[in-house]
Amino acid sequence: MTTATKALRHFPWCAPGKCESRPETQSAEHYGQRLLLDAPDGMDMGPAYLLHAELYVDDRYKGTSLWLGTGDPDDDEAVLDGPQLDAFIARVTAFRDGLAAMRAQLDAKPTES
After folding, report:
1. pLDDT tens per residue, range 56-100
2. Is residue 3 situated within a structural domain?
3. Whole-prediction pTM value?
4. DSSP sequence for 83-97
5. Is residue 50 in a domain?
6. Domain range for residue 45?
7. Buried-most residue among 13, 25, 55, 63 (CB within 10 A)?
8. Which distant-in-sequence residues (6+ apart) come within 8 Å of 12 by Cβ?
């Protein structure tokens, strides 16, 4: 029995109704829920988000990946494996920590030198 004719099996993270059977390639594609990082209020841009991410797997290939893209549909998307995602998480964490430090300084008053 081929992948195209047997029942489509899902990962625990599959988003309901988003997975697709591909009879022409005897495969299936699985999609997770899309995670969005919304743009700040007042930022004028097409889509109202800065980044999107979602889990994805095509059972013709090995392993699950994470799709990562910007809010601009003309930009390239990145496909990250586990170690690449770990490295990106570290960069996002450092960025978040930098934002928190800037927030702490935002209301500071100037001092005389």
Report:
1. 998 888 789 999 998 777 788 899 999 999 999 999 999 999 999
2. no
3. 0.78
4. HHHHHHHHHHHHHHH
5. yes
6. 20-81
7. 55
8. none
